[in-house]
Amino acid sequence: MTDLIATTENLRRSERMSQAEVAREMGISQGHYSKVVAKRVPLAPKMATRVTVWLQQRETTSAGVDHEIITKCMELMHLLQERVRSAPESEDKPG
Question: Quick check: 93 pLDDT over 70?
Fold first, then answer.
């Protein structure tokens, strides 16, 4: 279960989220989240479920964003290729 919290904290930091933001998304108080992270209270099964669901939601959202970015980049590459192909030769040669 410690790996679950470590994974959550790594993701939280990489996304530059505060503990309060993560706690709010999990439906718990920031204070309780902080205590779990600091191992002052044990990770209860109900809390482990909340953490797991939060991680899964983040994973799904990140995958969707990654796919969207890749799609937009590919569209941009195709537009640039078309522009290069259709440019008059005089624009390609230094003056």
Answer: no
